[in-house]
Structures are given as structure tokens and as C-alpha cells.
Amino acid sequence: MLSTPTTALLLLSSAASLVRAQFDPNGPTQPGLPQGCVGSVPNLTQCTISNYYLGDMVDRCAPPLPHPVPGQQVYIKDPTNFCINLPNPDSIFLINNFYSWNKLPTIVQAEGFVQSYCMGSYLPPGSKPLPQFGIRSAHVLKNFTVPGQNYYQIHGFLDCDVLGVNCTQSAPGVYDDGGQYDDGPFINCGKEPYSGVDNSTLANPGMQHYVEMAGNGLFCMRVCEPGNLMAGRPCDLTQDTAGCEKFMKVQFTEGFTFEDLTTGQKSTATVSLPPRKTTTTTTTAGAAATASGSTGNAAVTASPSKSGSAQTGAFVGAVLVALAFAL
């Protein structure tokens, strides 16, 4: 997630209780990071002071190249072949602050500590299979209608119990379980700056950026061509508190569908799902073990459709200018 002043204010009270140093030379080390690092989340105090532009500041906890790092790569092909990022049950930070206390993190509490989970047979390096039945619906849109702004989009329902995510809200509509994962740069206070899109031939060739929103049992994500993280572009990072319906103009329905806006192609996948549980318990860590294990995907079949022919995040101007140069 790219931290913004609005986000910082909304999350200040909860963030204060979770503050832990990301770097301690004598502390634990998250696998894949430099010695003493458990994450590479920017210092929010410094971000506020510097107007969310860190300039030439070096991230001492940056993982070694290449980027995006294994285990944090997403992609979208169709409603049964994609990867999204979710809270990482192996994160030292999340273990110390949530799992060891028999609690589950919300999407927003896990910003900066993500693991990619995939539906379908292809797994990018370091990715894990989505727990079976963790995705309750998925609708994919391919939009290659504007040159230079091509993107894929997905949205649908999550089963938070199965995925081991806390999706409870303190009150209806309160933005305290929703969050955003993206590859916004570290110098612009991005929290997952070394995550990204798998742009191999098996995933999304030509795509570089992504923006993913989730919470309250919903998720949406776009993967975009280079240069589309700016305001008004398909992977606009400044909409971090807007939500899926407002930012991506989606409506949440059941089913698994695909639509190509260029060709007019539409298709539907038939996915066999068991009934949802009548009650939810998404605040304790019992489901985390399920989320970290390999449990496979629901059985799917695809069939073409006969109809196939044809809360707002604030971002100051200085940051947008800086981001333009950074990208």
C-alpha cells in the first residue's frame, strides 16, 4: 500500500499499538531480507515529515534483486487462474503481533507483510495455492481499449474463515478491516514496494504494476502496464480508501466470469463450491494454519457465453510529482 495522509489519520490509533522496529541488528530476520530485518515498511513518521517523498533515502531492509521478490507476485489470466496477495502467516511481524496472540490480522494490518496465493495450476516463484474454497466468486475483465493503459481486473467474494483473515468490522462501513496492497515505490512510502506482477509468458506479459483492495469479505485487483500508478490511471494508488465499488466501478455478484472489452468475448466457468458456513469466526488464528497449507482448488469447467460478440484517499501534489519521476 502507498501510505497517504488520509490513510495515516484513519489508521493512527490502531497503528500506534502495532509499532515495532522493522530493523534491529540484534533481532530476528525474516527469510529473504537483510540481517535484522522483519519487513521493509517505511517509517510513517518520516513519511509524514517528508510529505510522503523520501528522496534518495535507502531502504536498509530492501531484499536483494531481482524484484518483484518470490512469493509476492500476482497475475490475472481468467477467473480460475490468478494470484492475489494476502497476509503472510510466516511473517515474523504478524506472528509476533497477531498469530502468537491467537488473533488474525485484517488486510490493512498486514500491509507490508504479504504472501501471494494462487488459483489454478500455475504458481509464480514462491507462491502458494489458495486454500480450497477460499475464493467464492471471481469476475475478470480484460481492458486493452486505451493504448498504454492496458489492464486486467478481477473482483469477487472471499471466504475469510478459510483464508485465515480477520474480516470483521467495528461498525458497518467503517474502514478498519479493508486495505490496499500495491507495488508503490519505497521512496513514496510504499509498503509492498518489492511485490509486483509476474510478467512471464505464463502470466501477464507486458504488465508491471498492480493495485489490490480487500476487506469485509471482498477483493478486487488490477494489473497494469508500466507507468499507470498515477492518479487517473488504471492502477491509481491514490484511491487507497475508496474501495472496489467506487474505484473499479464493480458490483459484487456470485459466479466466475471473463469478459474481453476489445473482442467482446465472454465466458463463464462452472466452479463447484460447498455452502458457506452460517457463522463466521475470523478473529482468532485457528484458520491461519489452513491458509498457510496447500489444499488445492475447487473443480472447474469453462464454457463460452452466447452473448459474446461485440472513502477517497488524499494525495498531495508534491507526492504525485515525485512519483512521476520515480516511475
Poorly predicted spans:
2-20, 301-327
| Average pLDDT level | 84
Distance between the termini: 16 Å
Helix % is 10-25%
Strand content: 15-25%
Major sheet, described briefly? 8 strands, mixed
Describe the structure.
The chain has 327 residues and is an alpha+beta fold. It has seven helices and 13 strands. The strands form two sheets. It has an eight-stranded mixed beta sheet, with no helix packed on it. Strands 4-3-2-1-8 form a five-stranded mixed beta sheet, with no helix packed on it. Strand 9 and strand 10 form a beta hairpin. The longest helix has 12 residues, at 5-16. It is globular and about 55 Å long. The chain starts with a helix and ends with a helix.
